[in-house]
Design goal:
The protein is 41% helix and 20% strand. The chain has helices at 10-22, 33-42, 59-68, 84-92, 105-118, 152-163, 171-178, 189-201; strands at residues 2-6, 26-30, 47-51, 74-79, 97-100, 127-129, 132-135, 140-143, 146-147, 208-210, 214-216. The chain has 2 domains: 2-118, Rossmann fold, CATH 3.40.50.2300; 127-216, Orthogonal Bundle (Arc Repressor Mutant, subunit A). The protein is of the alpha/beta class. The modification 4-aspartylphosphate is found at residue 51. Keywords: DNA-binding, Phosphoprotein.
Amino acid sequence: MRVLVVEDERVLADAIATGLRRDALAVDVAYDGAGALERAGVNDYDVIVLDRDLPKVHGDQVCRELVARRCPARIIMLTAAGELDDKVEGLSIGADDYLAKPFAFAELVARVRALGRRAAAPLPPVLERAGVTLDPARREVLRDGRPVELTRKEFAVLEVLLSAGGAVVSSEQLLEKAWDEHIDPFTNVVRVTMMTLRKKLGDPPVIETVPGVGYRL
């Protein structure tokens, strides 16, 4: 899942990004509304965590513009304004969810993942295919009932493959969904991660390479 965190308090923004990355999400950060609109115009995000009181372009205007662009990302507003009227106004301009500061980080993660499941076709909370089971909430993976320990990137790549429901996923799509904007597009990190992931999942192999196209589970 690819997430954009938009927050002008840099310490808080970086803390949120770090926490979401620990949950195997790919995260980019913008510190003002103009940067948010620029990144959303270039990258394909599943969820945008959007602070309301932003410099350069106010969070409300960012939300309105994203909705006008028909941006497919789900938007969760993160703001110190927690009164009912503020929540109603935020939802009325196009936000999908609203979380007031201060907040429990576990709740933010749960809301981001819930919105991510709604960003495209609805997905079940637990993904399962070919004897592989992945539980994003518990961050657990099983292969035929056997626990499998994965790194965050291996977990993210497996989640993208399982979410595709048997469709082929290209290396470019994996880079887009499992890494952030700082990744080198010419890197071989996808191939290396796929090699270690296959080894950990064991035999018989469940991840197929489709030559010249990508990967399929």
